[in-house]
């Protein structure tokens, strides 16, 4: 038998071994290119005057917009409300994070989940809940009128209404991140401080908070960026007085059809977002802001504590504070749940609002049947799940995993690709959709297949999260197992089938549930493309938020809450990937 | 500076009795080493003394004052935990002055004291650095300086050299001893390393499974271990527990816990016949090594005494006939019966 010549792998051998992988990789890259990078480039071109009949570069639009009063007002308001929201969320959320990190008590897991719930809800659900609680006919407003003679807060057309809405939404982000921060502090440091004579408050002020600044900065950044790019809540509550840049972009493109202006606004918004993120990164060079050793904090349990009056006062104060924050955070959800069963179409049936959702009853406000809304939502969500996993998997596999095994791609290329796929996250959903419209609106395909663009835009929103989930899981797979399988003669396909996929299956399921939830709750991009025939649950909730019969949108919102919660639990239980995205 | 007295200390965690009636005392200005294997309860004792853990029963006195139930803030105890824990957000100088700052000591006095204590520990040149810019040994010096800056009644050191590199260990151990003697601070020093214990201790308290098995001055602990367990923990060579000994050895010497074959009493005499007054050990020389003072040591592998082969150390400088013995050949070693330490 002729012996084989063992030598360097030729290009042909290499391609033959991986041709399927390369095919999928190519498709993923083409999608990103055509759905994200080309549209983004188009937006930037239009911002500089190139496009829509004009074919020369100019700073005219850039300069014009700065001089516009409406733009300056929007910029000031966008910053103002984002800073207020960030400050208030930190003040309220930091102590709760401390409480959760330091105390162990029965039912803590449930309380933590409930406190986190608003963060994972679609913005339209929070919006509807706030209107049902604090709106002119809301039950909190009515109670306030009965007790104090005037409403507690005016939700529409006021800064305080928007800041309240954003704060209630974002407290949970602060709680979630700072709980990890408090928990990561070194117990030994506290013990040393105590033996040196420091009181508890001296320890918190002089050591704990300075050591937690990385976590506090991260929480502040997320809250700031969320509020800065807020769309649904400001669109609904701001009326004509208050607009964020995001709302101005929408109005310029979809109401006034001023695409140059919309593109210029997007350019400025991107610059501000990038500056904030860059500022954050340069302020905190370490990604893991943990003081000293990896923290292990022995939590204080209630069992075995000898009751004394100081302890009773401390526990009572904590209970009251956490209960108030919990109640305030859950108020919009309580409002939605309450309305979905109390204000119903058929008084004899408690679940009539839910049943009607799955019927073919025509809704004149929406212009189509409620059953069709559910079908649209499921169709679009299925498309997003399929596309986001099919596109993220090959990239995560090749650049997140195989680059470590083969050393055939260098680390820089791998980082570059990761950045490229995560980049849509830094671009708001409205801007993503604006890019797609500018790039493709004059094609017949665009006009006739609006659902394709909705799915594309939503996939761009979900893709970074799905990619991070899958690539994080790939990082946990020991490359040695694949090397061993290869030495035993397994082909690339076989390795994927028998080693990688079983290892990834649970994560792929989690990613599927997560992208499904993102699609269901997605508002900004979907609203941008919205056509009556492709109305989704989130759009329907938004359109019906002020309807005379709020029971039906409330039932829709409850469905969205349940699906969001299930997806969140799937992530918590299925994977240890919390807050990595 | 004060005496420390611990009386009948019990501590349990869940269903595990970590400390089972610990009693010992350390007289003023002395350094006591708590020596024991991992899980023997050393760190727990230290944390109980600092009142960082609430013990089930027992009393602890610093001087004449009972401190049980007091808060750590009230004690004026310098505590240096394992792992070089510094306040990472503060400079070295601010770390050292922290205890004084929270007690409201005026700034000028703090600055003077920081300089004084930093000079003593040899960290004056790092005062403006952040902890992350220091080596392991430097961090430990700062942690000790911070503890000493409050002029504590008692200094508690938990494995202070655990994460210091091997080259710096001995120097830092001697440095700690020097500083302790200069300041006259009563000190409890926790370690599992007998070499460290021998370098710093005035008194050794040996712990095993939550109990004290020996509490003696260093010289006594080394020359007269109370049990084979204490001997092993003190690092006395050729300490063999009873469970490893052969039946005939057990019958002949009747040890309670084990025997020690003194490594400088064994004679290698390849061509001599056995005498009644001697124990003959047949084995092979498998290695030549050296002790911490760089004296050559022979390692003899034998199964003459134990059910499974063990390695005995033999001090080389007393072996006149060593040159006759060849490595990896069976040779005879002899030891007078009366030299065997029976525990």
What count of structural domains of chain B? 2
The CATH superfamily title of the largest domain in chain A: MetI-like
Q: Quick one: how many beta strands of chain A?
A: 6
Spatial extent as radius of gyration of chain B: 24 Å
Biggest sheet of chain B: strands, sense, closure?
6 strands, mixed
- Tally the beta strands of chain B: 18
The whole-number mean of residue pLDDT values of chain B reads 87
Number of discrete domains of chain A: 2
Instruction: Look at the structure and give the mean pLDDT of chain A.
Output: 83
The main β sheet of chain A shows up as: 2 strands, antiparallel
Helix fraction of chain A, binned, reads over 70%
Over all CA atoms, what is the radius of gyration of chain A? 26 Å
- Report strand % of chain A: under 5%
Query: Number of DSSP helices of chain A?
Result: 25
The proportion of strand residues of chain B reads 25-35%
Characterize the structure shown.
The complex is a heterodimer of chains A (581) and B (343). Chain A has 581 residues and is mostly helical. In chain A, 74% of the residues lie in helices and 2% in strands. Chain A has helices spanning 11-47, 60-66, 69-102, 108-120, 123-134, 139-148, 159-184, 187-195, 200-211, 213-228, 232-237, 245-255, 259-283, 309-342, 352-357, 370-406, 411-426, 429-440, 444-448, 450-476, 479-487, 492-521, 524-529, 537-543, 551-574, and strands at 50-51, 54-55, 103-104, 300-301, 362-363, 368-369. In chain A, the strands form 3 sheets. Chain A has a two-stranded antiparallel sheet. The N and C termini of chain A lie far apart (55 Å). Chain B is an alpha+beta fold and 343 residues long. Chain B has 2 domains: 4-233, P-loop containing nucleotide triphosphate hydrolases (Rossmann fold, 3-Layer(aba) Sandwich); 261-336, OB fold (Dihydrolipoamide Acetyltransferase, E2P) (Beta Barrel), CATH 2.40.50. Chain B has 10 helices and 18 strands. Chain B has helices at 42-49, 72-75, 92-102, 107-121, 136-149, 166-183, 194-200, 218-223, 228-233, 247-253; strands at residues 4-13, 16-26, 31-36, 57-62, 65-66, 77-80, 154-158, 186-191, 203-208, 211-217, 239-241, 258-260, 267-268, 278-290, 296-302, 310-315, 330-336, 341-342. The longest helix of chain B has 18 residues, at 166-183. The mean pLDDT of chain B is 87.
